[in-house]
Write a structure and sequence with these properties.
With 439 residues, the chain is α/β, with parallel strands linked by helices. It has three domains: 4-70, Elongation Factor Tu (Ef-tu), domain 3, CATH 2.40.30; 76-339, Rossmann fold (3-Layer(aba) Sandwich), CATH 3.40.50; 352-436, no CATH class. Helix content is 32%, strand content 22%. It is built from twelve helices and 19 strands. Strands 9, 11, 12, 13, 14, 15, 16, 17, 18 and 19 form a ten-stranded mixed β-sheet that branches. A seven-stranded antiparallel β-sheet has the order 1-7-4-5-6-3-2, with no helix packed on it. It has a two-stranded antiparallel ribbon with strand order 8-10. The chain is elongated and about 80 Å long.
Length: 439
Amino acid sequence: MEGRAFQKIYTQLESITKATISLRAKGVANDELATVAGRLAQVVKIKGDLITLQVFSGTEGIATNAEVSFFGDPPSLMVSEELSGRFFNAYGEPIDNGPAVEGEKRYIGGPSVNPFRRKQPSELIPTGIAGIDLNNTLVSGQKIPFFADPDQPYNQVMAMVALRADVDKIILGGMGISNDDYLFFKQSFENAGALSKIISFVNTTEQPPVERLLIPDMALAAAEYFAVDKNEKVLVLLTDMTLYADALSIVSNRMDQIPSKDSMPGSLYSDLAKIYEKAVQLPDGGSITIIAVTTLSGGDITHAIPDNTGYITEGQLFLRTDSDTGKVIVDPFRSLSRLKQLVIGKKTRDDHNYVMNAAVRLYADAANAKTKLENGFDLSDYDNRCLDFAKEYSTKLLAIDVNINTTEMLDTAWELFRKYYSPAELGIKESIMNKYWKN
């Protein structure tokens, strides 16, 4: 960052703990960033001229005459249209060999939008993935996580959503992603010719974990500029919130804070809420929708990270590999969008709700038939048809590699209904049946 060379340097520390150092300094702001012996630190307490700094990577090996250099500012981001198509690090500095961004300085991590300015979401955000659009429709201003085991291709799904979603800007916040994933995102966006509407903030596995803590706030500062100032529809993609929470726990352990459930800090709920509550639908048309990835440890959704996330967000999208087809699907049983009823049948076709419910019920019947088969019971003709339907439903609609619009999804579902079932077996309202059951 420019200007660092002109900052005053201090070399006399008063005290050192496991995670903090204290010194006397003037003209320092709360939350201001600094380096202590070259390590990143942040002001956490000011008492007169006694300043306490939290050293993110710990204070081990720091001498009492270590150099302390203040940046002169809390973390901030320069915002303007120039952000579009660019890749930045956790400090908002370019990592794509492009020029520094000219614009207005915005401090990151501020409060979320005043509830008085919020509006009930009512705009559909299509992703082209039927497991989402058909069964768990997303709404602008919603906050929703993908729950996935670490071996699931969640970053590929994120890239797909980024390239398909009908929004003005997409902001990617990558926390602890591998260099391969970083290059994958970069190449996917470049190859699709979509770079102009995508802005990325990236912290890779080689960089200090504590820098991840800045990524969501950087991404959301950019999102608020485009949504609030420019009235644009913004989609924020955050991956992986489990690695973000792990970084929180590293810092809190160094601060000698007593850990809570699963060795997470006691502040985990409010730390996550501070991020997710930035999702908003504004009255003038701007919106921030947040889709995050929360990786699970051995499929455990009772762990503190997914558990707290579930309380804050409006549902979840559950990725799993379908054992019958080998396809990665959005699981219809474990996924939920709590806001889908705001758009289903209103912004989509009038048969949407009926088709969605019938298809999931028949898929559940297939699961029951599978259990009967595994336990050695004979299958009825209906059971066999359900199993065949489930395979096609999984391949043609639930699989994440299918990319069609909502109308095509509904038409595909009707084709499958006609292929495997009689009208009576569907249990769909007569007026809808008369309109869409065409032989």
